[in-house]
Amino acid sequence: MSKPPLLIRLCAPRGFCAGVVRAIDAVEEALKRYGAPVYVRHEIVHNRYVVDGLKAKGAIFVDELDEIPQGSTAPVIFSAHGVPKSVPEAAKARNLFALDATCPLVTKVHREAELHHKRGRTVIFIGHRHHPEVVGTMGQLPEGAVVLVETVEDVAALSALDADRLAYATQTTLSVDDTREIVSALEARFPGIHGPHKEDICYATTNRQDAVKHVAPTVDAMIVVGSPNSSNSQRLKETAERAGCRIARLILRAEDIDWSLYGGIASLGITAGASAPEILVEEIIDAFAARYDVRVETVSTADESVFFPLPRALREAAAE
């Protein structure tokens, strides 16, 4: 029997961003240079396939530094999401060999928050409670110096703030549209509030959401390749739904595809979150090609050429 035709519209950009590449490269370079084990505090990026691959090479993932044996001389790497100031302080107190793989665009937000604090401003931080990036950013400042808001309703509920001494910052992986609404609510309520010099939502998040907005209305279904705990991947799924795609799913591997959803489709959009490797996209395309006569069309909405060098300690070690 002949297979039914299927047009796959492949979003570009998709997949790994410069910050994720830098973080993964940092773990692999440390393993190559210092040997196993290399400890990593929290998932280096939010993708189980990537984490499992690094585990197989000798990386050991821990939730907290106290899981690392006393007297260890092995490197410990901080994830791309960033960490509170208390973490590198604790590593220094234990004489741990710490390497910071925080994405430079997250570090930018940290520095902005610190600058606002020095100028006497309370920082209103837009983000998702308990996300590692939010925990890390709020942990740059003393308790009470940062107020978290997640929704427009949270803005309306804010109280006991000096309207003349306020600033806002945002998590780098949020929905562009949701964040715009929250920022508008903040500016309407606090007209003198100070914002970032350059938008905090990173280029990769914005570009991937723009590509989905372009593709999602033109296809019968949309697949976002990524992990459920990946903020930017979840936002891509929501973006597809908002753009009018009736079937939008976030999946990690081809084995997770619910084939009952795709029986009557003639077109499929595929993208990948910033922590999802291209091999998983190819795996999903191959799975559809086994059932459909697939034609792949790439839809490009932006070019990306951003590169971040390895953490300084690894660059210096490589130079030696």
Structure description:
With about 325 residues, this protein is an alpha/beta fold. It folds into three domains: about 5-15 and about 205-300, Cobalt-precorrin-4 Transmethylase, domain 1 (3-Layer(aba) Sandwich); about 20-100, Rossmann fold; about 105-190, 3-Layer(aba) Sandwich (Cobalt-precorrin-4 Transmethylase, domain 1). Helices cover about 40% and strands about 20% of the residues. It contains eleven helices and twelve strands. It has helices spanning about 20-35, 50-55, 85-95, 105-120, 130-140, 150-155, 175-190, 205-215, 230-240, 280-290, 310-320; strands at about 5-10, 40, 60, 75-80, 95-100, 120-125, 145-150, 165-170, 220-225, 245-250, 265-270, 295-300. The strands form three sheets. It has a five-stranded parallel beta sheet with strand order 10-9-11-1-12, with helices on both faces. The chain starts with a strand and ends with a helix.
Shape: flat
CATH structural fold name of the largest domain = Cobalt-precorrin-4 Transmethylase, domain 1
Quickly name the level 1 CATH class of the largest domain. Answer: Alpha Beta
If you compute it from the alpha carbons, what radius of gyration comes out, rounded to the nearest whole angstrom? Answer: 21 Å
Overall helicity: 25-40%
Question: Within the largest sheet, what's the order of strands?
Answer: 10-9-11-1-12
Element-by-element helix/strand order: EHEHEEHEHEHEHEHHEHEEHEH
Number of helices: 11
Number of strand segments: 12
Global mean pLDDT: 96
**Largest pleated sheet:** 5 strands, parallel
The CATH superfamily of the largest domain is known as 4-hydroxy-3-methylbut-2-enyl diphosphate reductase, catalytic domain
Please state roughly what percent of the residues sit in beta strands, choosing from under 5%, 5-15%, 15-25%, 25-35%, 35-45% or over 45%.
15-25%
| Uncertain stretches | none
CATH hierarchy: architecture of the largest domain: 3-Layer(aba) Sandwich
Briefly note the structural class of the backbone: alpha/beta
> What count of structural domains?
3
What is the terminal separation in angstroms? 61 Å
